[in-house]
Design goal:
single chain, alpha/beta, Rossmann fold, pyruvate-formate lyase- activating enzyme, OB fold (Dihydrolipoamide Acetyltransferase, E2P), 15 helices
Length: 456
Amino acid sequence: MTDPKRLHVITWGCQMNVYDSARMADVLAPLGYAPTATADDADMVILNTCHIRDRAAEKVFSELGKLRRIKDARAEAGHRTVLAVAGCVAQAEGEALLERAPYVDIVLGPQTYHRLPEMVARAARAAGAVIETDFATVEKFDALPEQAATQGLTAFLTVQEGCDKFCSFCVVPYTRGAEMSRPAMAVLAEARRMVAGGTREITLLGQNVNAWSAPGTDGSTWGLADLVRALAAIPNLLRIRYTTSHPRDMNDALIAAHRDIPALMPFLHLPIQSGSDRMLTAMNRRHTADEYRHLVGRLRQARPDLALSSDFIVGHPGETDADHAATMALVRDIGFAQAYSFKYSPRPGTPAAGAPAQVPEAVKDARLQELQAALRDSQAAFNATSAGQIVSVLVTGPGRRPGQMGGRTPALQPVHFPGSASLIGTEVPVKIVATTPTSLSGILDPGFLVEELARA
């Protein structure tokens, strides 16, 4: 029997890229590729790239320079290395990527990884590189193999791709294409396979996941609330989450789902980007700050323990001190459990890239530091409310110290507590005895320990 080929995947960016990387490994498994932890001994290396963050393309080329040296060294030793660039940078750069890095064998966009086996065969036969960057999203999901590697206790499941919102700063509509939703039957089938493999928490993924709308199992058109309800009926699926959502797509049914479906966790990532109406208009967000406040109020009325997360961009072209002050006011008003914040950086081809009144870097730096300090305080205050409370923790594995286990609360807070490995994969009640701005620590609820001893 020949030795398996070795595959190394380097993943940057969002959770959807994490999901895509896992599925790329799945489609290559029938060709004999098995994962390896390092590029040094890999027969194929895939860079799964993200175009959202600053200088994304330059970071890719820097990594490719390192991989070229590995590829050349292995070639001298008589071993071929297939080098592939996937994801959003591949989609955006295309032929330009090959002009700068002609040693790359395969360039594939995020909607074409189901054709990787064919691309690998073509690359082996051809003298030049193989490029696939079309937008055949439906075909991609239809072609994925039913057999997949075990995803672990917590797993991502892509249900929606693409974006029709065209925010001024964002490249997603250009790299992922138009919004597309997977049919409910396909999503439910994949979820059942995940749960059968041991997954207990599934996070539904989409660029605008709450825009999901597709044929349901009863023939009618479902929204995300309907899908969540059907997923909640799967035995042994303990927890359901979804990300990333858009305020414009948060409808009454989904708000009610947060109230009515216990498996839907009380945590919501709901990006706003700015607290200034002027900036929200410039960003093409199509909602106001007060509309966001009202929406949050409705969500918290439906689910009082809801933890909120968000995204913020400081220094969008035209942002003034008053606009920044409006963002700071919104942060104080809402009280976020966590949030992500970034300096605006231009993305070629987006409307904001060529907009006048670009904000100086020093101003962006100062605003970001002020915003992040407020967000850290908000997260610390949220975590502090857990002190003395008994919370349900999904135990995911060992903690940082011997005899310690770790997991997540329904609000996605990391928790560490003394416990045994027999608890992995279960939900246990933990009394929180200490909090930090970023995590919680606790002890198993004494009542639970008594019950465990009785069962033993």
